[in-house]
Design goal:
single chain, alpha/beta, Rossmann fold, 2 domains, 12 helices, 4 strands, DNA helicase activity, Helic_SF1/SF2_ATP-bd_DinG/Rad3, hydrolase, ATP binding
C-alpha cells in the first residue's frame, strides 16, 4: 500500500490508474539516459574498458568514440599523417571519382555486435578490438563506433568530445538528460582552455598583417581593420 508519511499517500488510486492507462495508450516509455564517460587520454579508455570486462556489466551495449588517428583502416588515408580528416571527407564525397569501400562496410561491424548481443556473447571491447575486427571484415571502425553509440548504454570518449561544442555537433552527441562521468576531473580546466584556444604561426601573423595593411591603406573598412592590425603588430 501507499506510504502514510509521504505525499504519495494523498494520491488517489483512481488517479494513478487513469495515468497508467493514458501512458499505455500513448505508448509512452521511460527515458533511459546514456552514460558518457570522459577520460583524458585514449590509453585511459583502454584501462577502463579492461576493468569493465571484469564486472557484472561487461555485456552492456557500449561504444568508444575516437579520432581517425586511432580507427581509420584505409591503407592510403591512415598513412597520410595530419591530412587524414580531409582525405576521408574527399573519399566520402567522391571528389576524385573514388569512394571508401570500408565506409560502405560499416553495417558488417554493427551487425556483428548485434548478433553477439542476441546470442548472449557480447563482451566489453577496446578500440584495438574494433579496429582489428574492422580489418577482418573490411569495415570502417571510425563510423561503426558512431553507429554503435545510438544503441549504447555507455559511451567512452576523450574529454574534448564532451566539452568542445564543435566536436559534439560533428559527432552528433546530445548531452541533454544524459549522465556524464569525468575521470580525473581536475584536468578539465586545461582541456576546456584547449577547446577554446587556437595556435597561430608567426608566418601566419605576418601574412595577416600585410593583408590588413593593404585594407587600411586602401580605405577599406578602416575602423574594423585598424584594431586587428594593431593586435597582429603587438603579437609579432
Amino acid at each position: 500500500g501507499p506510504c502514510t508519511e509521504c505525499s504519495c499517500s494523498s494520491v488517489k488510486e483512481t488517479d494513478r490508474n487513469t495515468s497508467n492507462i493514458k501512458k499505455k495508450e500513448s505508448g509512452d516509455q521511460s527515458f533511459i539516459p546514456k552514460i558518457f564517460f570522459g577520460t583524458r587520454t585514449h590509453k585511459q579508455i583502454s584501462q577502463i574498458t579492461r576493468e569493465l570486462k571484469r564486472t557484472a556489466y561487461s555485456s552492456v551495449p557500449m561504444s568508444i568514440l575516437s579520432s581517425r588517428d586511432y580507427t581509420c583502416i584505409h591503407p592510403v588515408v591512415s598513412g597520410s599523417g595530419s591530412s587524414r580528416n580531409e582525405m576521408c571527407v574527399e573519399l566520402l564525397e567522391g571528389k576524385h571519382g573514388k569512394s571508401c569501400l570500408y565506409y560502405h562496410g560499416v553495417h558488417k561491424l554493427t551487425e556483428h555486435h548485434a548478433l553477439q548481443s542476441a546470442h548472449m556473447m557480447y563482451q566489453a571491447w577496446d578500440i584495438e578490438d574494433l579496429v582489428s575486427l574492422g580489418r577482418k571484415l573490411r569495415a570502417c571502425a571510425y563510423f561503426a563506433a558512431r553507429e554503435l553509440m545510438v544503441g549504447a548504454d555507455i559511451v567512452f570518449c576523450p574529454y574534448n568530445y564532451l566539452l568542445d561544442p564543435q566536436i559534439r555537433e560533428s559527432m552528433e552527441i546530445n548531452l541533454k538528460g544524459q549522465v556524464v562521468i569525468l575521470d580525473e576531473a581536475h584536468n578539465i580546466e586545461d582541456c576546456a582552455r584547449e577547446s577554446v584556444s587556437y595556435g597561430v604561426a608567426e608566418t601566419q601573423l605576418r601574412a595577416a598583417r600585410e593583408e590588413l595593411d593593404f585594407m587600411v591603406n586602401n580605405n577599406i573598412r578602416q575602423k574594423d581593420h585598424e584594431p586587428l592590425r594593431a593586435v597582429c603588430c603587438s603579437l609579432t
